[in-house]
């Protein structure tokens, strides 16, 4: 049975195409949650297509939810980068708050990983370079994301990875836009300093979370997992992550070294900033077959690029059309070892007959 409170929340947000929110006509619903919904939208005068994030009526929500939404809008307006979801407009619609932002139509990295299991290290590196560039831009402006995960990384038609969902972000330059002294985030991607709710944080917090994502992309699972938050937190605080080049034999040791550094427990032992991560990966990609060329095509944003390069798939197309990998596939060396064991056992059995 649906509670009266749930019914009020459901009725508080527009659900029908054709309703006007600010200057935007609502289209189909892209998603709905406990706090609101996201719709396709079209500006009534310019025809610009956007995504409309609309909260339920303010009377139905806790003040912290409203504050988090306002904080996200304020932070996104400070940022202007091709790898960060852009905000166009925000305002009030009756008793609810709305935000019009860039419409990114190709899903998220989380959806790619659900379908494919894991990615070749080169594709993972290309994703990471773009995310690192977004983080570098945000960090230089005092914005720490604090909830980096595959579900918050969106894919655009033109091959760009877009960072979004800054509701838990911390603005180091404006305490009014910050929640500090609290353990916030997503368990499987939280660095030790976030778990222990330390106030003295910087961009290296996001670098750790990105390291967890990189590990997950290549290995097919996160480096630290458990049945509950206590088990996961204990591993983040105490356990060393497995080596990627052991789990995935074709992963270069230099790539595994970088991921290990990103997952260091102490921030001072991690790469000093996100740009250093991007630079390291670009150097690694440039020395491997044609990966650097594919990367350049994915990054290209030239008005004339389509004439000569339309036949080459961009990063989004490769992520969504690549082979489906079995993340639980055993290591080849493990299979060989098992085969040897069975061969020895078979020989012993024959000898005893």
UniProtKB/TrEMBL annotation:
Residue ranges of domain Protein kinase in the record: 24-285
EC number: 2.7.11.1
Binding site for ATP: 53
GO terms for MF: ATP binding; protein serine/threonine kinase activity
Matching SUPFAM superfamilies: Protein kinase-like (PK-like)
Residue intervals passing through the bilayer: 334-352
Source superkingdom: Bacteria
Organism name: Bythopirellula polymerisocia
Ranges of compositional bias, category Polar residues: 309-320
Lineage: Bacteria, Pseudomonadati, Planctomycetota, Planctomycetia, Pirellulales
Name of the molecule in the record: Serine/threonine-protein kinase PknH
CDD domains per UniProt: STKc_PknB_like (cd14014)
Keyword list, A-Z: ATP-binding, Kinase, Membrane, Nucleotide-binding, Transferase, Transmembrane, Transmembrane helix
Region (Disordered): 300-324
PROSITE patterns with a match to the protein in the record: PROTEIN_KINASE_ATP, PROTEIN_KINASE_DOM, PROTEIN_KINASE_ST
Pfam families, sorted: Pkinase
